[in-house]
Amino acid sequence: MRRHLVALMLLAVCGLHIGADSYPGKVLREEVPRKEAPRKEMPDAVARGRDALRGQPAMNPAMWSASALDRVWRQWGLKEKPADFQRRLRDRYGLHSASYDNDALPMGLHWSRGITGKGVVNDCLLCHAGVVAGQTIIGLGNASLDLQGLFDELSASETLSIKLPFHFSHVRGTIDPIGPVAYLMGLRDADLNVQKPVSLDISDNVCSDPPAWWLLKKKKIRNWTGSVDMRAARIDMVNLLTPFNSSDHIKKQEPVFKDIHAFIMTVEPPRYPFPIDARQAARGRDIFNRACARCHGTYGPDARYPNKVVPLEDIGTDAALALAITRKNLDYLNKSWFAQEKGPEGQDFRIAEQHGYQAPPLDGVWATAPYFHNRSAPTLYNVLNSRTRPKIFTRSYETGKDDYDAINVGWKIAILDESPSPKLHAIERRKIYDTTLPGRSNAGHTFGDSLKEDERRAVIEYLKGL
Ligand code: HEC
Ligand code: HEC
Question: Would you say the pTM of this structure is higher than 0.85?
């Protein structure tokens, strides 16, 4: 079985692609003629986009067979399948129950067809839906996810051992969005045909959290580095790069990604679920407008958002994500089909080199902890007082009201005295955030340090209501 799969995978790498016509995505491609939707049809595009991003219909082939999922508990050191398998499955990998009908699968996984028949694959919501203070929120980055654990243990359950030159993630709630794409792009030429592999730069130390989707409509440029035009749809199609998808299959999904974009533009920030002190918040707004608005913009009736990218040397937060987007990787992507998408003025949406991070809009910021692009600051209080940022910490990874810290605004954590032992099981190790490790620095963004304590508390009160 294992040799069979590896052989098929290699075949795919050599260009004899398989699979792309064997799963439900095909039905969509044949039956729904998709043209640019006229304005009045937008609600349909939104509904199609909402379904597509959760894999309805599936756009990728199954990655793991149904039986690999069903027996994954064997990877947990158990002798028999536990009665509460579904709950343990979610807890182990930081998955959540779906808030929509998902055919008995956790949110972010869906059924598809693959070379081994029916199986599961992830969709956008694995990373882009989460639960905070008991609320399931579509478009919120999943702060609990252990993507590496999910990938490793399902693959082991498939008896498939794939050695990859990158990690999907190093610590829970973060993803490396650069290494996997660089690896998969290197398997393709500029027209996305699978080719003899080219090696692109993989730094294997990047930790990034998925920005909340409700922020996209405020931005002119997107991603933490602000390197992509927010109107671009093709950039999210890197999610289709598995070598089992043909170049043709990928390109035909472009209208689906326009629908997904239309849906994302409708996502609104969730409201803070605890009381807010209105007087304190009004005071906090004045301080915010004085100390923070030049980068983060203003909120309310005359809202303004400056789309400001702050150079690495000025922001001082961890540089690994920005530096991983190297000139070599950029040149390769910018020569490819992904960068030949035309904007309204006929210009190509190319990916820009940015040595900095964009100050994000702060709408719904109460929900997006831990903070900064690498999730190194557990609460807003830690963001605004850099001296209090914990060096090594962990948390329950549960997401109820009791796990939420409504005073400092973010997650309740436990501070640890030392770095995790290398002997600790990888699943446990990835629960510990160690800011001394590459990609995980909690330095920089010291703009709140000079505030007085009561001013800082007032700013936090204001931020709760954004
Ligand atoms: C494996 C996790 C993962 C999956 C799956 C995933 N994303 Fe993301 N997404 C991320 C991360 C991490 C970032 C931040 C990347 C960066 O800034 O460098 C991101 C960024 C984005 C952004 C930019 C948001 C902003 O405001 O800047 C959009 C839009 C987006 N993803 C859409 C999608 C869509 C649509 C899908 C499904 C087709 C998808 N993503 C699948 C992890 C994921
Ligand atoms: C010079 C521009 C600048 C100023 C001034 C500034 N920030 Fe920021 N802020 C940034 C940038 C850039 C980031 C993203 C850094 C990163 O993630 O690496 C950020 C991130 C944040 C975050 C984390 C957002 C998230 O989703 O993780 C919060 C909260 C925040 N800032 C609040 C404030 C407040 C409150 C003030 C005023 C006291 C302030 N900032 C002043 C540029 C600025």
Answer: yes
